[in-house]
Amino acid sequence: VPLEAEMLQPFPMEQFFSASAAEYQLPMLGEVPPGEPPDPKKCSPREYLEFYIFPVLLPGLAELLHEAEKEKCFEGKRTKFIPSDFLTEWLYNNNPTRKDESFTELFSIPFVKDWLKDHPRPPIPLSLLLSEEEASILIQSFWRGYRVRCDSEIQELRKWQKKLREERHITEVVKKFWTKQEAK
C-alpha cells in the first residue's frame, strides 16, 4: 500500500479514548480518577496522564483561559499576556508539594531566575503596556508639539537659537564645562 494512501485514511480516535469529549469532565485540582493510583514507573502512558498529569494540568488550563478572557486576549491580535508565563506560575504555586508555602511570582521562581540569566527576554513593546487612554494622550501630546513647532513664530525662534549656538560656540563651552567638572 502506498504511503500516501495510508496517510489519507481517517484516524480511528476511538481506540485512544474510552470516553467521548462530551462525557469527559475536567477534574478539580488534586482530584484523581477513582481507584488505586498505578505505579508511575510501570503504568501505561494513558494511566500516567489520567492519574498524575491531568488532575493538575487541566485545572491550570481552565484558569489560563479565564485569565486570558480577563486580559481580553480574544478581542485583539496582540496582547501583553503571556500564557506560558501564567501557566508556569500557576502550576508552581498550585503544586501539591508546596501546599503550605506562600504565593511566588513568576520571576521569583528559582528555575525561572536561572533560565532568564542565560536567556534574557526582550522588553515588552510600549504599545502593549499602555492602555488605550494612555496611548491616545501620548499621541495627542506629540501631535500638539508637532503643530506648535510648525508655527512660523516658533520656527523663527528655533532658527535664532541655532544661530546663537553657532556664533557663541555653545557646544565647545559645554564640553569645557564638563571637562572641568570631571577634573574636580
From TrEMBL:
It comes from the Eukaryota. InterPro entries: IQ_motif_EF-hand-BS, IQCK. Pfam families: IQ. Gene3D superfamilies: cAMP-dependent protein kinase regulatory subunit, dimerization-anchoring domain. PROSITE patterns: IQ. This is IQCK protein.
